[in-house]
Design goal:
It is a single chain. The chain is mainly alpha-helical. It is built from three helices and no strands. The termini are far apart.
């Protein structure tokens, strides 16, 4: 069995290799935002893998799935955006 750190690292390295041809086409004003988003995504994957070492998989799966509800709710509460299925169908 592979350690979680290796599996996560391999997944992120493969994704970086697959998406690297698109970097020159990225708008310069999006570069910093894209890197920040990638860092947050990597942090999420790494923390989820590490939490599987000490937490039951069912709990980790529940918390991961809860973000599907929590993130749009926070968007609606903080930014006062209408997140209904009619206004933001890509969210649901």
């Amino acid at each position: 069995s592979l350690p979680p750190s290796f599996a996560t690292s391999a997944r992120l390295v493969l994704a970086s290799i697959a998406l690297s041809p698109f970097l020159p086409k990225l708008s310069p004003n999006l570069t910093r935002t894209a890197l920040l988003c990638g860092c947050f995504t990597a942090t999420g994957y790494i923390s989820q893998s590490l939490s599987l070492l000490t937490t039951p998989p069912s709990t980790v799966a529940f918390l991961g799935a809860a973000t599907v509800i929590v993130c749009p709710a926070l968007e609606a509460a903080v930014n006062k955006k209408d997140m209904s299925i009619g206004e933001a169908p890509q969210v649901w």
